[in-house]
Amino acid sequence: xxxxxxxxxxxxxxxxxxxxxxxxxxxxxxxxxxxxxxxxxxxxxxxxxxxxxxxxxxxxxxxxxxxxxxxxxxxxxxxxxxxxxxxxxxxxxxxxxxxxxxxxxxxxxxxxxxxxxxxxxxxxxxxxxxxxxxxxxxxxxxxxxxxx
Length: 148
Hints:
Blueprint (H helix, E strand, L loop, with lengths): L5 H18 L2 E5 L9 E5 L4 E10 L5 E5 L10 E7 L8 E6 H17 L13 E5 L14
Parallel strand pairs: 3-5
Antiparallel strand pairs: 1-2, 2-3, 4-7, 5-6
């Protein structure tokens, strides 16, 4: 099997992030499936900080992840997104650690630019609840220090 089914991709991403957090000295607890805003509660055992983490995973090696409109307003100082890019089965995933405020700003600004840009045939884009986060340059790649 080359790719996991979509549901398994998300679950695998959460477990990979929880494992990586644990490896780095955090206490990480995956939330129940009925929590649509927070996937992992994490605490830094060294300085007693608590974090809410939303995990988004792709498996196409492209540094872009779909989000919903909700991401424009879902932010706080202790909330982070960790975007996971699965690569080949025998390669370590890439992790992008992003403050939720940065995600909210990027998806809101990016969606507004998309709405203002004409489509392929010059037509106006129709508004949608879909948003995208991307980090093509790797600004947030392996930025675990944001959690300190």
